[in-house]
Amino acid sequence: MQELFIQAGLLIKKANKILCISHKRPDGDTLGASNAINHVMKEMGKDVQMACVDDIPERYYFLSEVRKSIKEFNFLDYDLIFVSDAGASYMTKYHEIYPEIFKGKVPVINLDHHSSNDNFGTLNIVDINSASTTILIYKMLNFLGIRISPNVATALLCGIYNDTGSLMHGNTTLEVFEITGRIVEMGGKVNVVAKNLFKITPISTMKVWGKVLERATINEEGVVVSVLTQNDLTDAYAKSEDVSGVVDFMNAVPGSKFTVLLNEDEKGNVKGSFRTRRDDVDLAELAEKFGGGGHKKAAGFTMPGRIHQEVKWRVLPANDGVTQLHESDGKVLRNAQELLGNILQIPEVKFKA
After folding, report:
1. What sign results for the dihedral spanned by CA atoms 34, 115, 297, 225?
2. DSSP 3-state assignment of 223?
3. Torsions phi, psi of 314, nearest 5?
4. Domains observed in the chain
5. Are strands 306-309 and 123-126 parallel, antiparallel or unpaired?
6. How many CB atoms within 10 Å of residue 294?
7. Cβ distance 275 to 240 under 8 Å?
C-alpha cells in the first residue's frame, strides 16, 4: 500500500484540475470519500469537481460539497480522476456514457475495498480488508502527510459509519475504533454523521420499510426474503433511496442464513440486496451470479426487469425482451432469473462447512 500511496502522491502533485466520481445509487462511503478528496484537493489549491450519475439523497446534504455534484462532464478536461468505492467500473455507469474514460487518456486513481473490483484504474488502490473506502483514504492522507481538516474528517466518518452500520457490523475491528477516534480528534463531527445517517427517518421511508417488513418471510432453508415494487414506492410518495437500510433490519432475524431484498427502482430495474451475519456464507460470490458484487457479508446486484407476483414472487424480463446484463448476453440474464427464482423458494446455495 505504501508504494501505491507514493504513486498517488506523485499523480496528485502533477494535477491541477481533478474530478472525483462517486458510484451510481450513491451511499455514505462513496460520497464521504469523494467529498473528503474534494476538500483536500481544494485546500491544496486544486480545481476540483464531484460527479455522480444519480441524484444525491438528501440525507447526505450535511456533506457541504455534495449538492454541487455534476452529472455530465468532458473527462478530457481533467488532469486526474478519482473513483471512490466503485466495486467495478460499471458501478459508475460513466463507462457507458464515456467509453474511453478508463482507457488511460486521463490518469484514474481507483480507491476501493470490494473484492469484486476489476482494477479499472491507472492506479488501483484496493484493500479488501478495509472496513470502508474512507478508512483507506485516511491511511493514504496520513502516509502522505496531508492535513485532515474538520470537513475532511467529517466526510471520512460518514463512510466509516455507513459501512460499519454505526460501528456495529462485524467489520468493526479494533483498528476501525482507533482510526475513528483519531478522526474525531481531528474535528470529525460524529454526532452530525450519526444523526443524518441513522436518526432521521421521513414518513415515506417508514411506510416503505413497513411494507417490506410486512412481506418478509423465512423459507425452509432459513433465507429471509421480501420484495418492494415501484407501485409500493408510488403509494408511499417515496423514492428507491428510501429502501436503503431496511435489509440490515431484516438481517436481524434469529437463525437465518442470509437475507434477500428485491426492489424495483424508477428506471425499470430490479435491485437485489443480500445480507448475512454468518461467517460460512459468501454473498459476494452469490451476487456475482447476477452480474453484481460486494462483500462476503453484504452484496447486491441490479438487473433490468420488474417484479411480478403470481403464486410467488419472481423476476420477469424487461419490456424489450431479453436485455443485456452489463456486457453479457441474454442467456446470463435468464440464468440469473432462474437462480433468483430458486433463492426465493429453496435456494441452491452451497454453504461452506
Report:
1. positive
2. strand
3. -155, 170
4. 2-198 (3.90.1640.10), 203-344 (3.10.310.30)
5. unpaired
6. 22
7. no
Question: Which residue bears the cell 435489509?
Answer: 247
Cβ atoms of 166 and 191 within 8 Å: the answer is: no
Could you give the CA distance from residue 345 to residue 190 in angstroms, rounded to a whole number? 42
Query: What tens-digit pLDDT sequence spans the chain (353 residues)?
Result: 899 999 999 999 999 999 999 999 899 999 999 999 999 999 999 999 999 999 999 899 999 889 999 999 999 999 999 999 998 989 999 999 999 999 999 999 999 999 889 999 999 999 999 999 999 999 999 999 999 999 999 999 999 999 998 898 888 999 999 999 999 999 999 999 999 998 888 899 999 999 999 999 998 889 999 999 999 999 999 888 888 888 888 988 998 999 999 999 888 888 999 999 888 888 888 888 888 888 888 888 888 888 876 545 666 666 554 444 444 444 545 555 566 665 555 343 333 33
Cα 271 off chain centre by: 12
Q: What is the β-pairing status of strands 223-228 and 217-218? A: antiparallel
Q: Residue 79, class by beta-carbon neighbours within 10 Å (0-12 exposed, 13-18 middle, 19+ buried)?
A: middle
Would you state the cell numbers that stand for residue 281, as one nine-digit string? 456464507
CA 301 to the chain's CA centroid: 10
- Selection from 141, 162, 84 nearest residue 117 by Cα: 84
